[in-house]
Amino acid sequence: VGNSSVLTCPPKSNITMVTWKISPKVGGPCTLGYRADQNKTDRTTCSDSMNWKFRPDWNPALEIRQVGIAHEGNYTCEVVAKEGNFHKTYHLAVLVPPRLALYCDGHGSPVCEAAAGKPAAQVSWVLESNSTPKEEGHDNGTVTVLSKFTAYSTNMTNTTCIVSHPAGNQSKSIAC
Questions:
Q1: For site-directed labelling of 52, which of 29, 78, 83, 144 has its Cα 20 to 30 A away?
Q2: pTM
Q3: How far is CA 43 from CA 30, 69, 153, in A?
């Protein structure tokens, strides 16, 4: 999320026409098209964040700027060339790194929160704990995971929470 993504088409010489057919999960479908005989591009209902990365007659790659969850979906490039028609389909999945918070609850127990990640983060503790993480889904497809540390022994001073996620791992320590 927040980065740019570039999707490429099958590389062909003597391109006659290129069409990007975009079907996001949110919002309606849109297309970007290029016709070589008229050296003309057109678009239907695509947001401004989606456009040709380069000149389509040179390289018909699609660039999505500031990728958001709404961009998730299928992206198909159709290339018409002298050798035939070629298709390449991408399924764009957007990762959202969770926000990590570690705090002490009212009973002096450490609580680790991996907020609004996509997909849900895995939360664990450096020392063994019999904690069962709780997940809360949000309307935008993100998930908050909450884990309370329950110690087997009471003589510990520092606890470390580890959050594992495809967008990157994080850890924090606290003494309650």
A1: 83
A2: 0.79
A3: 7, 22, 64
Are 78 and 105 part of one and the same domain? no
- The last residue of a domain, from among 36, 60, 92: 92
Q: Which amino acid is at 91?
A: H
| Domain housing 125 | 99-174
Name every residue whose Cβ is closer than 8 Å to that of residue 106 and which is 6 or more positions away in sequence.
none
Q: Rounded to the nearest 5°, which phi and psi values hold at 70?
A: -65, -20
CATH of the domain at 158: 2.60.40.10
Both 13 and 87 in a single domain?
Answer: yes
Cβ contact 99:144 at 8 Å: no
Flag whether pLDDT at 154 surpasses 70: no
- 58 with 123, same domain: the answer is no
pLDDT digits (tens, 9 = 90+) for 111-142: 999 999 999 999 999 887 778 899 999 998 89
Q: pLDDT of 51-103, one tens digit each?
A: 999 988 889 999 999 999 999 999 999 999 999 999 999 999 999 999 999 99
Domain count, the chain: 2
The residue among 119, 6, 139, 24 whose CA lies nearest residue 70 is 24
Tokens at residue 91, please? 């399924």
